[in-house]
Design a protein that fits this description.
It is a single chain. By secondary structure, this protein is an alpha/beta fold. It has ten helices and 19 strands. The strands form four sheets. Strands 8-6-5-4-3-2-1-10 form an eight-stranded parallel sheet. Strands 11-12-13-19-15-16 form a six-stranded antiparallel sheet, with helices on one face. It has a three-stranded antiparallel sheet with strand order 14-18-17, with no helix packed on it. The longest helix is centred in the first third of the chain and has 14 residues. The protein starts with 7 loop residues before the first strand and ends with a strand. The structure holds alpha-D-galactopyranose. Alpha-D-galactopyranose binds next to loops. Alpha-D-galactopyranose (GLA) binds next to loops.
């Protein structure tokens, strides 16, 4: 399947873990539509682990848990589709899923067939309980082939947590997104840890195989299955901005049925979403604008070329105490001061304009754990 921008949607795992059922999925579908999130691009509704019975049926097929999904998965998929959304499910390369339900090892073709019959549009494929005799790369290739053989377009989401140098082989498997990190938790500490993994692998992103930094924790507020103390609003903004800037899939992880206004305002920031979904998918680059006082690792600045000629800028303050300031000269970001261009700079979180003076953009007071994200509109004069 060709996927030309980072997928957006929602996944059950971060908040609900094993506490999922048909009613919840239907309510999530309703809320995606009614809140306006669907219209902003959040289109995949993905059921994660713990949806099946512990045993396959006599024909070797996966069976939905009868208490959680009494009408079967086709009925759930039909409901999700009736709302104009896409339906995602979960399985695993191993004999069991991470939570101990049947995995797809040696059942790849029958499972792919089952998912296709149910109307699945997205398969998350985890990495637990894998066979020692089969390399991860082979397991992913096998499921990818099995999915294609169904004839249905199914987005293939690999979830091997970056293990076994996933980045060296994942784009040979047909996976459309790939998890580069271990599991996120609802804490600033974890966000920082995942950011450093992203840095280690060079913030890379492949065509048709997007680097997945894991589901979003925005709005979880210390509750739900992956709770770990929660984050402040500023930290959620920094996390969301980073994921968006680096082209990660944007999969909501909070309970949207119960989201507060601030959560919605973060998740629905169109300007930030546009940077994530920009059609050229250019990789951001690190700016050489470090403040003499502060290590640039702690407060990095990045720029990213956008498809219409605009430039996105972002500064992330990962330090705990230091408020930082940054400046960027136009020539650092490919805007030659001698070429007659008209540039305007918009702060994508406050909406305010920022002045360019002496061909320099000065960004003041980036507070600890906060970020600043700008779009420079560039017009020829
Ligand atoms: C792994 C994955 C998570 C989630 C759980 C389900 O830990 O990385 O995203 O899917 O399994 O058991």
């Amino acid at each position: 399947m060709m996927v030309n921008k980072p997928p957006m949607g929602i996944n059950t795992w971060n908040t609900f873990g094993s506490k999922i059922d048909e009613k919840l999925i239907m309510q999530m579908a309703d809320t995606l539509v009614e809140s306006g999130l669907k219209d902003l691009g959040y289109e995949y509704l993905v059921i994660d682990d713990c949806w099946s019975q512990k045993k396959r049926d006599k024909d070797g097929r996966l069976v939905p848990d009868k208490n959680k999904f009494p009408n079967g998965m086709k009925a759930v998929a039909d409901y999700v589709h009736s709302k104009g959304l896409k339906f995602g499910m979960y399985s695993c390369v191993g004999t069991m899923t991470c939570a101990g339900y049947p995995g797809s090892y040696r059942h790849e073709y029958i499972d792919a067939q089952t998912f296709a019959e149910w109307g699945v549009d997205f398969l998350k494929y985890d990495y637990c309980y894998r066979s020692k005799s089969t390399a991860g790369v082979e397991s992913y290739r096998k499921m990818s082939t099995a999915l294609k053989a169904t004839g249905r377009d199914i987005l293939f989401s690999a979830c091997s947590w970056g293990h076994d140098d996933t980045h060296k082989w994942i784009d040979t498997t047909g996976a459309n997104i790939w998890r580069a990190t271990t599991d996120i938790k609802d804490s600033w500490k974890k966000v920082k840890e995942l950011v450093s993994v992203s840095n280690e692998i060079g913030n890379l992103n492949f065509i048709n195989c997007f680097t997945d930094l894991d589901m979003l924790i925005v709005g979880m507020r210390g509750m739900g299955f992956c709770a770990e103390g929660g984050c402040t609003d500023d930290e959620y903004i920094t996390h969301f901005s980073y994921w968006a800037f680096f082209g990660s899939p944007l999969m909501i992880g909070c309970d949207i049925r119960d989201m507060d206004e601030k959560t919605f305002s973060i998740l629905s920031n169109k300007d930030i979403i546009e940077i994530n979904q920009d059609s050229e998918l250019n990789r951001p680059y690190l700016l050489r604008c470090s403040d003499a006082m502060i290590d640039k690792i702690e407060v990095p600045g990045y720029a990213k070329q956008l498809s219409n000629g605009d430039i996105a800028l972002a500064f992330f303050n990962f330090s705990d105490e230091k408020t930082a300031s940054r400046y960027v000269t136009l020539d650092m970001i490919g805007l030659d001061a001698d070429i007659p261009l008209e540039c305007t700079v918009k702060d994508l979180w406050s909406g305010e304009a920022l002045e360019i003076s002496n061909d320099t953009i000065r960004v003041e007071k980036i507070e600890p754990h906060c970020c600043k994200v700008y779009r420079i509109s560039v017009k020829a004069v």
